Amino acid sequence: MSPAIAKPLLSDLVAQSPQVPLSHVRPVGDRPDLVNVDHDSGSGIPLIDLKQLDGPDRRKVVEAIGSACETDGFFMVRNHGIPEAVVEGMLRVSREFFHLPESERLKCYSDDPKKAIRLSTSFNVRTEKVSNWRDFLRLHCFPLENFVDQWPSNPASFRQVVSTYSTEARVLALRLLEAISESLGLERGHMVAAMGRQAQHMAVNYYPPCPQPELTYGLPGHKDPNAVTLLLQDGVSGLQVQRNGRWVAVNPVPDALVINIGDQIQALSNDRYKSVLHRVIVNSESERISVPTFYCPSPDAVIEPADALVDGDHRLAYRPFTYQAYYDEFWNMGLQSASCLDRFRPIDQRAD
Ligand code: OGA
Ligand code: NI
């Protein structure tokens, strides 16, 4: 793999410039407002304890998950079942990877969004005008045996540590999808069945310290195109979610993971559950690492709202589409606040 480098990795730029380079400066009017953000923990997203999810109080936990999906689209979970050592190992190899010499990291570089394994920068350097303050390694993780041999082999423990984490993350994703189905009054297996063979992708996001965080984004406001996202973040803040028109900081809580509903659950739930706008802000002091696991339908799965959720009061919100068609549309549109979902509404309900 000898990379054709469209733009260098961000970490290289950082070493060269004491200011944000023009390639990363957003136009005035499209910059993050860092002042009007709710930081206080009372306004944060719900924190749900999963300890009783498989016990006699399952119903209560399922209801808490349902109401978080309906009102916030985001929640945190603790006692989620992924052992602490596995979580810590994942963060450790992520950091080690991004601290490798650039020449070593570049062996994985590609700007082709269709590649199953790749290191890149920003979001889609082929299409966007202004870059984001992020490098990322993207890995397909399921079925593991199809992909693991293509993952980076440096750091030496990378494949083993990331295999363990992604296997545990899959177990948690499946438990959450069952709870989400039940909370909608559907069969426990509904969401998983609707997603066909399913896929699991992971990103390891690396946000270096940024000399002028007010000029650029780690990631601008977007909604996740997949079904459900499980986000592991290190101790550094940066994620913000939109609620009632305001940005709310999701500050890291020790041992908790952040869960969010993606566009596919919004479609399958006929708009009952919300895929919510979120963004990443960078800071001048510390690097930040986050590891989202994107649980996705298989490309050929046909996504359509569950019959039981469509009635006289809740008309059908989407026409059937394949996840492949959706995903292609998402990458073509780029990250923007207008949801890609609107393009899949029945013709008479489309806003555009
Ligand atoms: C994403 C995302 C949040 C974060 O990768 O889609 O929203 O905190 N990441 O890195
Ligand atoms: Ni996201």
UniProtKB/TrEMBL annotation:
GO terms for biological process: defense response to oomycetes. Residues 198-297 form the Fe2OG dioxygenase domain. Keywords: Dioxygenase, Iron, Metal-binding, Oxidoreductase. Its cofactor is L-ascorbate. PROSITE patterns: FE2OG_OXY (PS51471). Transmembrane segments: none annotated. It holds the Pfam family DIOX_N. GO terms for molecular function: dioxygenase activity; metal ion binding. Belongs to the iron/ascorbate-dependent oxidoreductase family. This is Fe2OG dioxygenase domain-containing protein.
